[in-house]
Amino acid sequence: MLRKLKQLILPFFQQGLGPKELALCLSITLFISTIPLIGPVTLLLTFFIVKFRLNLPLAMGFSYVLTPVQLLGILFFIRVGEGMMGLPPLPLDWEGLQVLLGEGPRAVFQVLSERIFVALGAWLLIAAPVSLLFYFLVYQGSRYFLRRRMHG
């Protein structure tokens, strides 16, 4: 039984280890793991990594490493999105939040949904080219190290 389980799991650890697959796996992980939303990362990442037959354990490990970047990125993308759309900054001090909460649930929902929307727009504009650049860097780097390893 243990042998069968090993045969079932082992391919997930071995697939997607060539330079192209490695670069694609890590760049997709970088792109998805920095989305300024808490929650959908693991599901989205698993879907795309399995669909492209890439290395799922590597992607999950890298995604967990990127969690602090995602959390800090939420505020960063909100601020960038506010600047792009000309919105006033969301108050993050206690007094500003009390004023916002005093305006009622509808106002809170409207302000927060606007900020999520502009954060997603900023994320898309920034994360896509950064992930593409990351792909090329990892691809060229892994090809270089593979050649050095093969030729001594």
TrEMBL record:
Pfam families xrefs: DUF2062 (PF09835)
Keywords per UniProt: Membrane, Transmembrane, Transmembrane helix
Transport listed as a keyword: no
Transmembrane segments: 21-50, 56-78, 116-138
InterPro entries: DUF2062
Domain DUF2062: start-end pairs: 3-150
Keyword Transmembrane helix recorded: yes
Superkingdom, natural source: Bacteria
PANTHER family: E3 UBIQUITIN-PROTEIN LIGASE
Protein name stated in the entry: DUF2062 domain-containing protein
Higher taxonomy: Bacteria, Pseudomonadati, Bacteroidota, Cytophagia, Cytophagales
